[in-house]
Design brief:
It is a single chain. By secondary structure, this protein is of the alpha/beta class. The protein folds into four domains: 7-127, 3-Layer(aba) Sandwich (Rossmann fold); 132-315, 3-Layer(aba) Sandwich (Rossmann fold); 319-402, Orthogonal Bundle (Helicase, Ruva Protein, domain 3); 410-470, Arc Repressor Mutant, subunit A (Orthogonal Bundle). The chain has helices spanning 15-27, 38-47, 64-74, 89-97, 110-127, 131-142, 151-163, 180-189, 211-216, 233-236, 252-264, 290-295, 301-307, 324-336, 348-356, 362-376, 389-392, 409-438, 443-449, 454-463; strands at 7-11, 31-35, 52-55, 79-84, 102-105, 170-173, 198-202, 217-218, 230-231, 241-245, 266-267, 276-277, 281-286, 310-313, 345-346, 381-382. A hairpin with an 8-residue loop joins strand 11 (266-267) and strand 12. The protein is globular, with a radius of gyration of 25 Å. The relative contact order is 0.08.
Length: 480
């Protein structure tokens, strides 16, 4: 059965904007109508079978907010996307609070508009899902795949809910130890592929000479030591999800071959004369900024856009410390299964120390610390004196635990690099936030003020999970 074409209505008093929307979305396969008047546009939306309305906030006859209220009241099934170069950030946020799905500032790129509409349509699909999806999400939380009640984690869960029912490629960004694989697993578990395999591959752990064979498979005799044919991870994950961790580590040549697989949905096993069709959903992860690698000529731009369809930025633990009590208690309960006589909880003082620590190793470090505490603590509760010195001392700067003291020159260099990165990351984040605040939330003006190209500045925002519309006191959105 042929899939119905989604219908979109653009309401804007600027004819050029309407024409642009019609051209961009028409090329993307949508049926697009336009209207230059607010009242007429609302009337057409109420009478037509539109799924998405692009709505300007500044209209000649009625305000965009009035139009939005009428649409939400009489056609709540329509997804409304605000497009404006006039509204302040507060007004755009007000529109979202009144029911708008999202907003796109003018001037927008074809990719920004198409992605906004695509997300809106997927959100509609999500809202129409039956009770099964809700049960799956509840089961996922009960299984403790992702824990957290902070706003940051709620946003991650919301993104998972939006993207899981689709087959879009997802790239998860985050520091080491933030739980990127858990995000990938949660996406898989909440998708229609949940009953099929979830295969996780750490690309940094594979031998450089064997990565292609590991991913795509090989036939007998393909190389020295290949005594029998072997399927690759793509074939093993057939019908399910393949999670490629540390995607930035693969060679330029392999990047090209991976791009071809994503485009053709076929893999070419090493030494074979034929290709094999694969049906796999790809989720990748990295602790580096792929856009910066593209600009440095170390990562293919075409592959970047293929992988970065839906980016999810996982914040470091230090940015959502209110989740630490829940996480620490969970890890303690896990450890108690193997050590029943272990402490049953934390004193208030010990938990306060955990919350105030900067956690350079993120959630993974917290888990390891709790397991260590179970082994060394006595009594019913974990006390401050049981904590490692770097946590109990509440040091402001990163320090190394005793077990992490470098044993040779290479380890010393690596420790120095990690400590520098941890300290600089906070300085860099403050730099971006201050620039945005001084520029009223406008990314372009902020980049110009600090002498940086906009793509580079925006890359820093993505690295630290900063969104311009979230900056307090902004005068207007990033309408360039």
């Amino acid at each position: 059965m042929e899939q119905a074409i989604a219908r979109v209505l653009a309401i804007d008093d600027e004819k050029s904007v309407c024409v642009t929307c019609q051209r961009i979305l028409g090329e993307a396969g949508y049926a697009v109508d336009t209207c230059l008047s607010g009242k007429e546009g609302v009337q057409r939306a109420l009478q037509g079978d539109y799924e998405v309305v692009l709505l300007d906030l500044k209209l000649p006859d009625i305000s965009g907010l009035e139009a939005l209220e009428m649409l939400r009241r009489d056609r709540p099934d329509i997804s409304v996307i605000i497009i404006t170069g006039y509204a302040s950030i507060q007004t755009s946020i007000q529109a979202i609070k009144k029911g708008a799905f999202d907003y796109v500032p003018k001037p927008f790129t074809p990719e920004e508009l198409s992605l906004a509409v695509s997300k809106a349509l997927e959100n509609r699909k999500l809202l129409s899902e039956n009770e099964f999806l809700k049960q799956e999400l509840t089961r996922m939380m009960k299984d403790s795949r992702i824990l957290g009640r902070s706003k940051a984690m709620e946003e991650i869960l919301l993104q998972i809910r939006k993207v899981a029912p689709t087959d879009f490629t997802v790239t998860v960004y985050g520091e080491s130890g933030t739980g990127k694989e858990l995000i990938a697993q949660a996406i898989h578990d909440s998708s229609s592929r949940a009953e099929k395999p979830f295969v996780a591959v750490d690309l940094s752990a594979l031998s450089a000479g064997l990565v292609e064979s590991e991913l795509f498979g090989h036939v007998r005799g393909a190389f020295t030591g290949a005594t029998q044919s072997r399927p690759g991870y793509f074939s093993i994950a057939q019908g399910g999800t393949l999670f490629l961790d540390e995607i930035s580590n693969i060679s330029w040549e392999l990047q090209g071959k991976l791009l071809r697989v994503l485009e053709t949905r076929k893999v070419h096993p090493v030494g074979s004369e034929r290709e094999i069709e694969v049906d796999v959903r790809i989720v990748t992860a990295t602790n580096r900024d792929l856009f910066e690698l593209v600009e440095a000529g170390k990562f293919r731009e075409d592959l970047y856009y293929r992988l970065n369809v839906i980016p999810i930025v996982v914040p470091p633990l230090r940015e959502h410390p209110d989740d630490i009590p829940l996480l620490a208690t969970h890890f303690l309960e896990e450890a108690r299964r193997e050590a029943p006589r272990a402490p049953e909880g934390f004193t208030t003082e010990a938990m306060a120390k955990l919350i105030s620590y900067h956690w350079p190793g993120n959630v993974r470090e917290l888990k390891n610390i709790v397991e260590r505490l179970v082994a060394v603590s006595d009594g019913p509760l974990i006390r401050p004196e049981n904590l490692p010195p770097e946590i109990a001392g509440n040091t402001a700067a990163p320090t190394l635990a005793l077990g992490d003291i470098p044993q040779n020159t290479e380890q010393l260099k690596e420790a120095k690099r990690r400590l520098k990165e941890t300290l600089f990351a906070q300085v860099e984040k403050n730099f971006v936030q201050q620039a945005l605040e001084h520029a009223g939330g406008n990314v372009t003006r902020a980049a110009q003020a600090v002498g940086m190209q906009r793509p580079n500045f925006h890359a820093l925002m993505r690295r630290h999970g900063i969104r311009a519309r979230e900056r307090a006191g902004a005068d207007e959105p990033d309408a360039e």
